[in-house]
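G.,

No rush on this.
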Amino acid sequence: MEIAIIAHDVKKADLVQFLNKNKVILQEEKIKLIATGTTGSKAENSGFKVKKMLSGPLGGDAQIAARVAEGKTKMVFFFKDPLSSHPHEADINMLIRVCDVHNVPLATNEATAQLLLDAIAQQS
């Protein structure tokens, strides 16, 4: 199962902490992580194997959206910063829309991401 991980700058540390907390399930052979550039680098620095796309503002969100549309990415964790505006807001909205169109679970905060991972763990 391919899971995309994305985080705005102020949420990157929270996402890495979440990944570390769930390292056992996220490092199972059946889980493949993809990420936007900087988020992927931070995850790699914590010991995760990640396929990196471009950074979000340079098209990484669009690359992940394409993988969702192609049926490759089955879940998206996008730790968003709800208190700031972002210059690539259109790309973010497009990714959210594509997840909705293709019925792909999208977690925009840790609580929702944890529920999704707990569901995966119960299936194992």
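When you get to it, here's the other one too:
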Amino acid sequence: MSIIVNIGAAKTRLSELIVKVEAGEDVVIARDGEPVVRLSRVQRDSDVAAAVAEIRAARAGLEPTRAEELIAWRDEERRFQ
């Protein structure tokens, strides 16, 4: 869920908004109700390494995905766009 705040509120609540972003919230700063900026967490190498390790653990013991399967999944997604 996105949190949308106007610039003035963002100025006074910046520390609070940063804590929310660090926790995974999506924060959008708006001017006169129109979104202009999105605050996002800086991705660290350790975040990527942890994600890769999680994927490898989930895939452990499974058959490798064949190229034909990947192509079929890609084409299936395109049919719904």
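The chain has a mean pLDDT of 90. The chain has one domain: 1-81.

Enjoy the weekend,
O.
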